[in-house]
Amino acid sequence: MKAIIIDDERLARTELKKLLQDFPEVEIIDEAANAEEGISKIESLQPDLIFLDIQMPGKTGFDMLSQLERTPQVIFTTAYDEFALKAFEVNALDYLLKPVEPKRLADAIQKLQLTEHKEIKPEGENFNNSILTESDQVFVKDGERCWFVKLSEIRLFESVGNYAKVFFGGNKPLILKSLNALEERLDEKTFFRANRKHIVNLRMIDKIEPYFNGGLLLELKGGEKIEVSRRQTVKFKEMMSL
C-alpha cells in the first residue's frame, strides 16, 4: 500500500517513517510539508493512504481534503484532540495523537488491512466492475464533504436526474451515478430495485404494507416510504418467500 506523509514538522515526518518501518505492507513513497504540496503529490502519485496533520501553515488538513478530486484513505496525525469529531465526520480511518504510540499505529494499520475500501466513482471513469457486497466500504463525496461508509449502512439510493442521492444515517449526499449503473454493481441479495427511482436495502425495511394496483409500500428504518411497482412486487414476493 503506497502512502504519503503530510506534516509541516520534519521531525514528526521522520519519527513516523521510523515507526512505519515495522509495517512493510505500507510503502512511504513521498512526503509533503504543507497542504498545497500535499495536493500536488496526491494528484501526481495517487497514493492509497495519507498520514495527514491537521494544523499546518496556510491550509489545514481538512481544507486540503475538501480540494481533492480523489481522496485516499486518511489517517490523521495531530497534537490536538479537539478535531476528533470533525475527523469522524469526514470518516477518517483513524485519528492518532502525537507523539504517535506504536500500539495505536499498529491498531490503525490493522484497521487499514481489514478495510477493503472500494469507491463509487462518477460515470465515465474506469473502475472495477466487481459486485459490491454489504460488507464493502465505499467512498462518497458531495462537494466539500466526504465519507467512507459501509454499504450495509446505506438504506436507499434515489435517482435525481443524472445523480443518485445516497441515504445513510442523517446524510443524503448526491453522487454522479445513475441508478442503472449502481444496480449493476450492487448485490441483488441485499439491494432491490423497488421502482424506476429507488433501490432499497432489504435489511433496512421496517414495515411492508399492501398498496394500490397490487403494489407494496415499504417503510425504511430512516422513515422513508417507498412504493414497489406492481411488476417489481412479483419479484419482491418471490425473493422474500420461503
Task: Summarize the structure in words.
Helix content is 27%, strand content 32%. With 242 residues, the protein is of the alpha/beta class. It has 2 domains: 2-115, Response regulator (Rossmann fold), CATH 3.40.50; 119-240, OB fold (Dihydrolipoamide Acetyltransferase, E2P), CATH 2.40.50. It has a 5-stranded parallel sheet with strand order 2-1-3-4-5, with helices on both faces. Strands 11-10-9-13-12 form a 5-stranded antiparallel sheet, with no helix packed on it. It has a 3-stranded mixed sheet with strand order 6-7-8, with no helix packed on it. α2 runs parallel beside α3. The longest helix has 13 residues, at 102-114.
Radius of gyration: 21 Å
Helix content: 25-40%
Quote the beta fraction.
25-35%
Mean pLDDT: 87
CATH fold description of the largest domain: OB fold (Dihydrolipoamide Acetyltransferase, E2P)
CATH class of the largest domain: Mainly Beta
Total helical elements: 7
Q: What topology, given as strand order, has the largest sheet?
A: 2-1-3-4-5
The coarse overall form would be elongated
CATH homologous superfamily designation of the largest domain: LytTr DNA-binding domain
* Sequence of secondary-structure elements: EHEHEHEHEHEEEEEEHEEEEEH
CATH architecture of the largest domain: Beta Barrel
Q: Which consecutive residue ranges, at least 5 long each, have pLDDT under 50? A: none
Annotation, overall tally of beta strands:
16
Largest sheet: 5 strands, parallel
Number of domains: 2
Structural class: alpha/beta
* Euclidean distance between termini CA atoms: 44 Å
